[in-house]
Amino acid sequence: MNAQTGPQPIGKILRDFFQTSGLASRLRYLELYAVWEEVVGPELRTHTRVAGFANHKVHIEVDSAAHLHELRSFYSETLLKELRARLPALRIAGLVFKPGAARSPNA
User: Fold this and answer.
1) Residue 92 is part of which domain span?
2) Which residues pair with residue 19 across a beta bridge?
3) How far apart (Å, rounded) are the C-alpha atoms in residues 62 and 71?
């Protein structure tokens, strides 16, 4: 707390800390996991998981060939637009769908 400025909101203090420590850029990637689950919806959420983010591409593991085909063929562009709108700082260039393990129902 600075004596000249007085008390500050905790949100501002945390924002400043994350910016100066470099954690802010890392936290953006964590937000991707939560946003993916919202964007993909409850039906497909249990069949997919974010496997990573590299070269501005989101890597998504899908638990079945049918869902993999469905996501690539019918939902890819819509999901990409929605992720870009919600996470503009990540500058997402594309989605990469690949076969992967099934999620647990409670995850």
Assistant:
1) 10-99
2) none
3) 9
